[in-house]
Amino acid sequence: MNYIFQYGVVWDNFGALMEGAWLTFQLGVFAFGGGILIGLVCASIKTYGPFPLRLLVDGYVVFITNTPALIQIYFLYFGLPELGVRWSNEACVLIGLVLNAGAYLTMILRAGFLSVRQNEIEAGLTLGFSIVQQIRYIIVPHIAKAVYPALANFFVVVMVMGTSVGALIGVDELTGQAINLSSINYRWLEYFSVVAAIYVVLTFVASIGLALIGRWVFRVQVKIF
């Protein structure tokens, strides 16, 4: 094997890779945030809503969790324009990731809702807690302890495995930037080894940050490794 690594070509374009890493982080955060909102609404409906709405939520969750994220994004990017609906590449990826994350987070958050025992809510009512106080002192701590570690791990999954799908429809996130740059000089090994290292750093920093948030805000221990 006479392959000679030339990492100099990577460092010359390191700024572009950092721009891709920043876009990856942004897509991950917004997809996760949007997924949380959808998950909260759908989990509430699944737990307390009427039967027709629960049926709709079940259909959404079953469809999304049983089809690949790539197919969902391809549907948004290639399929909807046939119906006259066009979004930018970035919007297609973000909408697809939000819908995908929302379905999985619905199941995670519902487990949190079910962990709240009725007798504890009744105890809060007996003590004269308002609805806001019940949410603040009873419901949120229970849900946080039950689901926060799973949510933290899911954020990492969305950021690493979810956003890289965007490269397949031309979004210049981290993987997309690596494909673009390496296709110019064919230094695939150098670019993708550096990009893999950047992903490790991104997920490590995100895991540390989420573990600290869980410890300080929710009093939840999150295992990083």
Give an overview of the whole structure.
With 225 residues, the chain is an all-alpha fold. The two termini are 35 Å apart. Helix 5 (89-115) packs across helix 7. It has helices at 8-12, 14-48, 51-65, 69-79, 89-115, 118-126, 131-162, 174-185, 188-217.
Quick overview of this protein structure:
Belongs to the binding-protein-dependent transport system permease family. HisMQ subfamily. The protein is mainly α and 225 residues long. Helices cover 78% and strands 0% of the residues.
Architecture blueprint of SSEs:
Elements: H1 8-12, H2 14-48, H3 51-65, H4 69-79, H5 89-115, H6 118-126, H7 131-162, H8 174-185, H9 188-217
Helix pairs in contact: 2-3, 2-5, 2-7, 2-8, 3-5, 4-5, 5-7, 6-7, 7-9, 8-9
Subcellular location: Cell inner membrane; Cell membrane
Protein name: Amino acid ABC transporter permease
Pfam families: BPD_transp_1 (PF00528)
